[in-house]
Structure formats: C-alpha cells, structure tokens
Amino acid sequence: MSALLNILTEKIPKWREEALELIHDKGDAVISEVSVSHAYAGMRGIKGLICDTSSVSAEKGLIIRGRPLLDIKYILPEEVFFLLVTGDMPGQEDLEDLQHQIHQNNQVPEHIWNVLKSMPDDSHPMTMLNASILALQGESKFQNKYSQGIRKQDYWKSYLEDGISLIAKIPTLAAGIYRIRFDKGEPIPPDNLLDWGANYSHMLGFSDDDQCIKKLMRLYLTLHCDHEGGNASTFTSLVVSSTLSDVYYSVAAGLNALAGPLHGRANQECLRFVLEIKEHFDSIPSSDEVRDFCENWLKQGKVIPGYGHAVLRCPDPRFTGFMEFGETYIEDDPVFQIVKLLFEVVPDVLLKHGKAKNPWPNVDAASGALLYHFGISELNYYTVPFSVSRTLGLVAQMVLNRALVLPLIRPKSITTNWINSNVDRDNYT
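Predicted structure:
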C-alpha cells in the first residue's frame, strides 16, 4: 500500500464524520441566494459546491489548502498534488513514494501512439490529448472493480489509483503529441531519474542540461494546478465523475471544457495580441505607443485579452509568479518586455473606458510569452501544458468527492415561462 493511500485511509473517516456533523448541525442554513440574473448569467458567484482543495479570494487569488499560491510556487508539482489531496505537505519519504508510483506508471502503451500517429496531420493538439486519454480508459481499475462489485465507501481508492496512473502518463502523452504533431521526431521515453516537471521538459526535447526550462515547467505545472470547484473544466469533470464515470472519462470531459477560448485556450489569444504589437512596431514600443495602440484597439470594439477575471479583483498571483520568473531569467526578451509594458498600461486604459470591473491581468497574460521564449512557438499547443497541470486538481477533487461519497450532481433548471409566472419583482416566490 502506498504512503498516500495509507494517509488518506486514516484521514477520510474523519472528513466523512465532519461532513455528516455539518449536515446534521447546519444542513438547513442558507449559504447563497439565486436571482433571475444569476440564472441567466452562468450561475456566476452562486455558492453551491464543496471544494476543499483550493479557494479563490477576490482580493488574494488562488489559495491551495490554506496556503497562498505564491508561498508554494517553487515546490514540485508532485508535492502540490499531495497537498491538494491530503491537506498536508509530503515528507521526503512520502514524496519519494509518490514519485516512485509515477515512475512505475509513466509509460504509454504502443497502441496509444498508433492512435495518435493515425490522426490527420492538422489535428488540434487538444483533440489528440483527449483522444489519447479516452483510448487509455480500458486500463481503468475503477471500472473493473465496479463491475465486480465494491463498496461505494471504497470507490475513492480506485479513483486514486487511476488518477495517479493518468497523472504519470499525461506528460508523456503531452510531450509525445508535441513531437508527433509538429514533426519534432519520435516521442522521447520518460527518464525515471527526473521529477515530473523536469521529465516533461526532457520528453519535449529540451536539453537535460537546461535548468531554466525545467524550472519553468515545474512552475507552469504548479501554477495551473487547481482553481476551486466552479471553473468550467473542474466543474465539468466533477459532474461527469459524479455519474461514476471513471477518471479517464471525467478528466477528458474537463479538458474538453478547458479547450475553449474563454478558458484554457485564452493564453493563445493573449500571445497573439502581444505578437501583433511586436509586429506592428517592429521593435519594443514605448509606454505611450502601447497605450495608444490599446486605445485604438478598444475603439475598434475589440477586447484586450488576458485582462479581467470572473472572480479576481486583483492581479492574478499566477500572473505575478510568471512575471517574477520572467524578470529573473528572460528579462531582455522582447516579447516579455511587451507583456511588462501592457501590465503598466492596460489597467488604466480599461478603467478609463469602463471596460472591466477588474482591470488586472490574469494568468493568460504572461504564460504564453514564457513558453514562446523557450522555442515553443506553436500557439495551438499552449492549452496542452495547462491541461497537464490542471489534471492534478481534477484528480484530487474527484478522489475527495468519492471519498465523501457525494451524490450525483443534478441542479434543477427552470423555464422562462416559469420565471414570468412565478417571480414578482418586489415579492418573488
């Protein structure tokens, strides 16, 4: 039995007891109200989910198990996963045990590579990633054990086993897809002497002597790991897993949501905007030139990508983490310089035009520029490393939901006619 399984076996009964006590003592307490506006606006801001892995404060940004993100930005992504699942940082033996499990499961079966190589040459990398995850579904331990009959109180154990297996394989898949799709050569096997993030860098084809790209990959995989339970990709995966679809089905569903331009694909749009500025001026522009460019951009009815957030009312700490990395390692990069200039200019421009309640940058405003600096110039690949990272949070939340034996997620919908018939502006029922 793994160290992680042992720890969770000890913790989960206490978590279940706590949940039952809360339901007994406070089950009738109201935690949120729903207005007609909420119903038409994507349920934004409605408190209706339990997520213990992370929370997002409007003023502070992402908090992982009570720890502000920037306080843990330089720990290994494996440590972040352990923290997400257990609420505690791993000891050295715990970390080594988890890394051993990852190393045991990081090989991808040959038939998956055959599937990927048979896809059209112009396939989107996210299509390839999701196809490969679904093709792995036959390996699900949960589905096999469920068909044989296991107690629902034990579902979480198989979810954890499947989750670690997928976490182990997804950098191998993601790097192999990059190499296959963009004619970089054959997939590179994982190196079990490397940690999870460094291995991703290795399998992409970067030199093992390049410590800078290893640091970036570790940081990238940490900063994108989780974002509470209501974001589109996480919520999608949790809805699917609540039907007792296994980890593979559920993660693939969540990553399909991540592929949208209003979610994980936004980093591509941000970098395109930066590159357009660079091409327009054919050099690093001045602050005044960037301001004028952005003013004209808004006057054309266009949106400045990478600014504003559904929840945050401050600069995204993930953006801050990437900017600190950029200032340390690639300060003179012209693309990064434009990202810095935009940060100086855009918030004031947006406030002036009344275009955003939150004029501050989100994570997408900076992440693409760093990948671009290191030679990953294929913009439609950028959602893939985001997906590798977010799988940590998806798996952690699924395991915990099964551990608490949470039921099928099934909100009630209403019709427009129901609103017209039953809701009065001044005295609604």
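Summary: The chain has 19 helices and three strands.
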